């Protein structure tokens, strides 16, 4: 207990000395040992790396998990060293709702079939998103988090220790300066030759004693200063080596960034492929706006036109009656059939790919008909004296 009390008193004295030195520096009443320019640059770069790493980490977490409540839940599980429960993605949840809706509304109806196809695509999108989140968390977020919770904490600890060593060093310098000033003053007073005829020559004796005491104090302060300087230099070297390691951190983060970009590229490529497949499927399984069921996909004819319309625009097939140049010539010579022409309302704007196609504007009415052997995804459309091929999926056929 006695030893602990002495140590506690010693620590309290050191803390008080540092506090006094720090306060006097803030008020400009004490000198401060400045670090060299290279060391200051290393400190600035380390602080900048830490700040931007925190911002990038937080925003990447927002990108991967936009729900703040879910992020807080995952954070608590990590702090409690418990496994984060599996959570369905928004795409997978949407797929579930669409599949249930299709089952209840009728899986054989055009709407039900489309819901089923879209649900399957959304499920694949949700699975791709899950894989992307998992890959990005391991290859990108984990290294950034390890730096902040590992390397940066070590750097911060050594910097605080360096700050304490500097305060101790400057306190020793201030103590030595005061001791030398007091020694010089006592020496000047002691150099005066006393008058031994006086009844009280005590001033001379006291001055000589004070000079000896201050001389001992100077020697003690110089010894403490040497020790403090050695400890400061050693701590400065340790901190400098850690700060120079920030360059290795940048190299590691650069590699992780490349991996993040690659995983993100893979994810968006998968999403594009899934949506392109869905788009093609919806083109083969068009819905209807007039409540009729779709045929088993027979070719369009003048006697039995198919009443179809698209639920979304798709990239039309370029296969038709003939090559574009020949089709354009044939269309001018082909007369519409006596029966089988219908009116159609345009659902979406369509820009003609070549002279054989007819450009369309949303909500306009045109006359359409089919020709024998024509691609079922296309019709011949007429607007005034203009004629050309038009995609079926952009039309709502009327009576």
Summarize the structure.
This protein has 399 residues and is an alpha+beta fold. The protein has helices at residues 2-26, 37-64, 68-79, 90-105, 110-190, 202-244, 246-284, 324-333; strands spanning 342-346, 365-369, 378-383, 386-391, 395-397.
Structural class: alpha+beta
Helix content: 55-70%
Low-confidence stretches: 285-329
Q: Please state the CA-atom Rg, rounded to the nearest Å.
A: 42 Å
Give the helices and strands as they follow along the chain: HHHHHHHHEEEEE
Which term fits the overall shape? Answer: rod-shaped
What is the terminal separation in angstroms? Answer: 103 Å
Number of strands: 5
Report the mean per-residue pLDDT as an integer.
78
Q: What is the number of helical segments per DSSP (H or I, 4+ residues)?
A: 8
Largest sheet: 5 strands, antiparallel
Share in β-strands: 5-15%
Strand order of the largest sheet: 4-3-2-1-5
What attributes does this structure have?
6% strand, alpha+beta, 8 helices, five-stranded antiparallel beta sheet, single chain
Q: How would you describe this protein?
A:
This protein is an alpha+beta fold and 399 residues long. Helices cover 64% and strands 6% of the residues. Strand 2 and strand 3 (378-383) form a beta hairpin. The protein is rod-shaped.
């Amino acid at each position: 207990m006695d030893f602990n009390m002495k140590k506690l008193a010693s620590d309290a004295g050191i803390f008080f000395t540092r506090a006094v030195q720090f306060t006097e520096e803030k008020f400009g009443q004490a000198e401060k040992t400045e670090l060299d320019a290279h060391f200051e640059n290393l400190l600035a770069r380390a602080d900048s790396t830490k700040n931007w790493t925190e911002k990038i980490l937080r925003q990447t977490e927002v990108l991967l998990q936009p729900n703040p409540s879910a992020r807080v839940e995952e954070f608590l599980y990590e702090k409690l060293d418990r496994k984060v429960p599996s959570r369905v993605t928004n795409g997978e949840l949407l797929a579930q709702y669409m599949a249930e809706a299709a089952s209840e509304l009728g899986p054989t109806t055009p709407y039900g079939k489309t819901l089923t196809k879209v649900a399957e695509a959304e499920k694949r999108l949700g699975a791709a998103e899950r894989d992307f989140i998992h890959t990005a968390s391991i290859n990108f977020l984990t290294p950034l988090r390890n730096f902040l919770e590992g390397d940066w904490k070590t750097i911060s600890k050594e910097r605080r220790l360096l700050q304490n060593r500097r305060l101790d060093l400057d306190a020793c310098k201030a103590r030595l300066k005061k001791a030398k000033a007091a020694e010089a003053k006592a020496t000047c007073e002691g150099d005066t030759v006393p008058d031994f005829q006086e009844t009280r020559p005590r001033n001379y004796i006291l001055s000589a004693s004070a000079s000896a005491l201050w001389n001992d104090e100077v020697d003690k302060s110089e010894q403490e200063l040497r020790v403090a300087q050695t400890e400061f230099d050693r701590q400065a070297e340790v901190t400098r080596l850690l700060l120079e390691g920030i360059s290795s951190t940048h190299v590691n983060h650069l590699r992780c960034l490349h991996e993040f970009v690659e995983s993100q590229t893979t994810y968006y490529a998968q999403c594009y492929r899934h949506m392109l497949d869905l788009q093609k499927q919806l083109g083969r399984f068009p819905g209807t706006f007039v409540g009729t069921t779709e045929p088993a996909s027979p070719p369009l004819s003048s006697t039995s036109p198919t009443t179809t319309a698209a639920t979304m625009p798709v990239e039309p097939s370029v296969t038709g009656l003939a090559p574009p140049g020949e089709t354009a010539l044939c269309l001018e010579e082909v007369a519409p059939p006596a029966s089988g022409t219908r009116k159609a309302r345009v659902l979406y704007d369509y820009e003609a790919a070549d002279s054989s196609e007819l450009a369309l504007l949303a909500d306009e009415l045109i006359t359409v008909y089919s020709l024998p052997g024509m691609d079922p995804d296309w019709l011949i459309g007429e607007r005034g004296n203009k004629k050309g091929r038009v995609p079926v999926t952009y039309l709502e056929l009327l009576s």
